[in-house]
Amino acid sequence: SQTIHQWPATLVQPVGSPLSLECTVEGTSNPNLYWYRQAAGRGLQLLFYSVGIGQISSEVPQNLSASRPQDRQFILSSKKLLLSDSGFYLCAWKRGGAGEQFFGPGTRLTVL
Amino acid sequence: KNQVEQSPQSLIILEGKNCTLQCNYTVSPFSNLRWYKQDTGRGPVSLTIMTFSENTKSNGRYTATLDADTKQSSLHITASQLSDSASYICVVSAGGSQGNLIFGKGTKLSVKP
User: Fold this and answer.
1) Residues of A with CB below 8 A from B43's CB?
2) Do B42 and A94 touch (CB under 8 A)?
3) pLDDT per residue over B3-21, tens digit each?
4) What percent of chain B has pLDDT over 70?
5) How many Å apart are CA A82 and CA A24, to the nearest integer?
């Protein structure tokens, strides 16, 4: 069976500090991978998606970046966090096509 | 513009009661519609998926309906339980190789004893 992991589960960071959130998937190969942000009272916003190693598509211009160094690893980064980066970050995976996306447990980021 | 609108924004019901959540969408082309349940602080989990030709689909006490003509969907919860307290998110897939998803903002359901 497939599982998706995210860490850390919660993170409190000062403004201007760097960020690295990690997502890994087990039990499948060559998944499509996604990073979403969910701000309080808002829907999920797609940030990045990747269809393969080193292939990243950005949906929203911002101070965040994503990388996919391995087939089942997806990393969300920032060099300098802003207050507006606070939110709940979700990683998801799916097989190619219009199939179901499976979400990870999420990371709660608070920027102070 | 592809959009998914959900109502109500929030809902409080007593344990054992039924409720219905609404989802209206303007998404083209339409591939499928999913309802997700998201417990507080957790990732969403799929409840049902409906394609263009399906009108009703059930998953235990959850029953989803789809009217592709009016572009409306509903999620009916029967005999609610305290564990049903969560946000319910309607997600419409616009199809394509990437399965472009449009998310509603969700309905926050609270079931009280």
Assistant:
1) 90, 92, 103-106
2) no
3) 999 999 999 999 999 999 9
4) 96
5) 25
